[in-house]
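Check this:
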Amino acid sequence: MNKTKLSLITLLISGAVLAGCSSNSNQSSASAVKGQEETKTSEEVKETNISETENVKFYFTADEGGSITKINAATNEVDEIIEVDGTVHNVQVSPDGKILGATVVPAMGHGGESQSEDNHGEDSHGGDAHGDASMEMNGKALFFDIETNELLNTVEVGNHPAHFVFTEDGKYALVTNTEDNNVSVIDMESLSVTETVDTGKGPHGFRISSDSRNAYIANMAEDSVSVVNLETMKEQKRITVGSTPVTTGITSDGKTLVATLNAENILAIVNLETDEVEKVEVGKGPAQVYIDGNNQYAYVANQGTEDDPSNTVTVVDLSTKMVTATIETGKGAHGVVTSSDSKRLYVTNMFDNTVTVIDTEQNKAIETIEVGNVPNGISTME
């Protein structure tokens, strides 16, 4: 396995560092040959699974231990470990599939060890997310060539950068700065920060509407979601959702918003026409959520805490507002994404250093892959 060492500026900080913050195949039936059934070998079954998941080429994990793991989706084998100086919190593939974006936060804490909120006890997504800001140093947004793994550019953003999301039109990349209570807007032509937009307290995970007009940002240190208008570059409003929202999701029609409420063990479902909130109980310590391509299900990764980890994904039907399945994963399920055809679900397990691959038709884990240390965000290239 090749390793690419990418040297970045060493960033020092006092206090906690913000951290811890998709395809499926059918079981193949035996083939009939001249009216008689044959038993498929494991190699033949694997080939069938590969042929049904060709839309996903690679998936990437943000490893807080200082790397990005690139995994071949056809074989579910690690293709490359991209080493990074810093704590990699989140990754996302650009809409054209050519660039991988990542957030890197300062990695040095007490005793020189990486400090991670999202994977340590009660502070994972609750309580004070900021720590001692007396030695603040800005984080970075990194841009990689997705084929060669080459670092193309480094852009300075704010303190404690959390999630990284491209607009669907490819015009901007946004990074939430949890310590600064704002979001950096990066112009993709100039690869520079052109706007900084204020949000609520502790902005963390977010999604952008499919028309690239609005970003829905979970404010982890309060009970709200900031709606940022990307045409005016201003916070349009805040929606009260509940305690410690970590990440959001938005349906492609822009009508329904979801947010994980870490302190309540709840998925909040918001009607964006009325801002009415309905709550569905999920697993312990929910972290990320992802809505499938059919806008039918929301997949909630239940992380728990390092001392008391959860190991499940809760499947919520968005039309009935009911839980339809609970799927077992590794310890500390955190990042979650589906393939575009919604056949596979990929989940990072922070406390096992693994990714669970889930068949969404069976709602069952079918493979576990070892990745880098403390995998956080995850994204697919299709």
Observations:
- The chain has a mean pLDDT of 84.
- The first helix runs from residue 42 to 51.
- Residues 3-25+41-381 form a domain with the Methylamine Dehydrogenase; Chain H fold (CATH 2.130.10.10).
- The chain has one domain: 3-25+41-381.
